[in-house]
Design goal:
By secondary structure, the chain is α/β, with parallel strands linked by helices. The chain is built from ten helices and five strands. Helix 6 (about 110-120) packs across helix 7 (about 140-170).
Length: about 250
Amino acid sequence: MTPIPARQRRTSAKQKARQQAATGVVGYLRCSTDEQADSGLGLDAQRAAVQSACAAKGWTVTEWAVDEGVSGSVAPADRPAMARALRLLDGCEAGALVAAKVDRIARDLHDLTGLLRRADDDGWAIVALDLGVDTTTPVGRMLVGILGSVAEWERATIRQRTHDALAAKKAAGARLGRPVSAETQPARSRLRELLNDRLTFAAIATTLNVEGYTTATGLAWQWRHVQKTRDSLALDDLALDPSPVRA
């Protein structure tokens, strides 16, 4: 009998683990202010909604991930509890991430669609009760496609508006882009490479720190620094490319 190739054995093991975890889910709760974290305001209602929905579907909440006092503007992978939840899901220890509202998972549409793609690629599901986002169902998967199209339209619109604003400034004689010192260029170049690898801001910051890079002010990198530098690089690119932006 021909042995099963190693890659196929790993895939089969992962599929088996997924099947075993199919009815186990991670319940995700988030409140956005320190006051909410201290009082628990809103968390009980979120927990009750998740428990009720899971009971109706025959799912078991095997783990609760709670980000207290964490803003929805923070990227999902950069939140402590969400990051732990994603590790559980990627590790086949649960079959779905369930939240009472979609804005508990992500407020930014690009963050949400990024998570949806990650879930689809790795074989787990995302369920947001308020909007009916449930990638375990055909309707939920259709909604994911719609959200992805809206996100792409939004990106194209932002690019066009930014291009138009920069063109107006250039016509008025303003200098475009932030001056960059020679000392910061290596870190910026490396950061651009890591962005192209589609790493999270937190992962990029960790990599830059491990490789010995610092920020322009000599500090250790954090996800916020990565986000700001990403935006700066985008402005530099637009300043160098005067061609119209197409959707």
